[in-house]
Amino acid sequence: MTPGLPVQPALDHERFNTTRWSVVLSSARENGDRTANNAALSDLCRMYWRPIFAFVCRRGYGVTDAQDLTQDFFVNVIEGTLLQRADPSRGRFRSLLLTALQNFLIDAHDKRRTQKRGGGKSFVSWDDWMEEAPSQLSVPTHLLASWTPERLFDIRWAATVVDTALGRLREECNACGRHRVFETLRHALSAEPSDMSYETIAQQLDISPPVVKRLVYQMRRRYRLFLREEVARTVEDQADIDEEIRYLCAVLAAGTK
Prior knowledge:
Elements lengths: L12 H4 L3 H11 L3 H14 L1 H10 L4 H17 L13 H18 L15 H5 L10 H6 L2 H27 L3 H7 L12 H8 L3 H24 L7 H16 L2
Helix pairs in contact: 2-3, 4-5, 4-9, 9-10, 9-12, 9-13, 11-12, 12-13
């Protein structure tokens, strides 16, 4: 008998209220716990490391300068007053961060630094960051060369969200002894049924086609849940989740054309 994936409750309103961005905004507005605020903000920033770095590079900076500027930007966000100026009507961390980055680069271009960027502080180890697994999303080179910095930011953001959700699903499958199942079926998560051969997959896994269909259904369900949770971390209002997921899907679709 082939057991399925563990079943866990879907994202509910109570759980949503404790997402990172909600904690950050609440703390900023009410002058709340600085430690809790910074911990939540640091976690959010790590999700946006690649999009920010890609944006800075596309604006014409070399790799070394882009690394320094990215590091400095996140230190500025965490220790600055950006969040006190956050507009509640713009409840997406992605939108606020991109606007802040554009303003930061204007200031960085005009100012002469009198100390090492970031004030000698390190937001995250570059060695650790560069050793992370590459994105699962493959973008044609000719498209990358023609995109604006803003569009590149969006595609890197979408890819990071997807990679994070896939990583969580991989960990869950590994925990229940389903590593081989995940590696075999992960490409089926976004494939059309007509593009899949359940019989071929069944032979690869030495199980029956009906079991393959059940596993694909379960993995897709878990993947959608993880994707939704990752998006929920970066918006304030629950009503924004579906809109943000639709935007993410549109960005990914445009990035493969």
